[in-house]
Amino acid sequence: MSNILISGCGISWSGQVKPTWVKVLKLCKLPIIDLGGPAVSNEYILNKLIKHLMNNDEVSHVICQLTSLAKLDVEVDEQRHKEMVEPDPLRNFIHDGVWPSSVSKLHPAKQSYYKYLYSKNIELDNTLIKMYTLQKMCDDRKIKLLFLQGYPVGWPETNILGNLNIDLNYIIETHYHQSQYYRLHDHENENTVPCTEFQKHLAFNINDNWLQYDLSSYKIKFNA
């Protein structure tokens, strides 16, 4: 059976305690390979998908859940772990060999990075070029590809977007905040992962409108 390849940030990543739409679809026995991670950047998300497709043929669908801009993934050694990772009250963990430091500015090095080194337009160019590369790879191999916006990005005017399978008017965070499920969300500890009921709703919407597996028996079970 061909696999469904997914990569995204904490909104989607199934390897956490909180339920996500990817975890819901896994519970429905869909053949999913989850390459995402918590608080990771668009560079991480896109690189994982592109690298996997370069080395694997058994893929029928790809879902790329984009995250917000300005996130920074950092390779760490013992010194960086002690001085930057451990003191961070929120991002004090390592995933897949990197510190997904997100956009935190608690350390002076991170403050200097955003003040002197970060370039939004360069990040947007890099993101769009990788999105186009992923779309081209999938088109060439007749793999269905869907881009989902997790958070607002603020895209520039460019012809590239017209070649991508992305609904620019749909943003998961915005849809969640406008939904009936938002009041059920746990807002403690600055965790922005949507609540369980919304994740169920999102999972079945993605399946009904795009994946189109028969999940009728699971819909009764999950009441979504």
Question: Under CATH, the topology of the largest domain is which?
Answer: Rossmann fold
Any idea of the CATH class of the largest domain? Alpha Beta
CATH H level, superfamily name of the largest domain: SGNH hydrolase
Instruction: Give the DSSP E fraction (strand runs of 2 or more residues).
Output: 15-25%
Radius of gyration: 18 Å
Structural class: alpha/beta
Number of strands: 7
Largest sheet: 5 strands, parallel
Low-confidence stretches: none
What distance separates the N and C termini?
26 Å
Which sequence of SSEs, written as H and E, runs from N to C? EHEHEEHEHHEEHHH
Q: What is the averaged pLDDT score?
A: 93
Helix content: 25-40%
Describe this structure in words.
With 224 residues, the protein is α/β, with parallel strands linked by helices. The protein folds into two domains: 162 residues, 3-Layer(aba) Sandwich (Rossmann fold); 46 residues, no CATH class. It is 40% helix and 15% strand. The chain has eight helices and seven strands. A five-stranded parallel sheet has the order 2-1-3-6-7, sandwiched between helices. Strand 1, helix 1 and strand 2 form a beta-alpha-beta unit. Helix 1 packs across helix 7 and helix 2 packs parallel to helix 5. The longest helix is centred in the middle third of the chain and has 21 residues. The chain is globular and about 50 Å long.
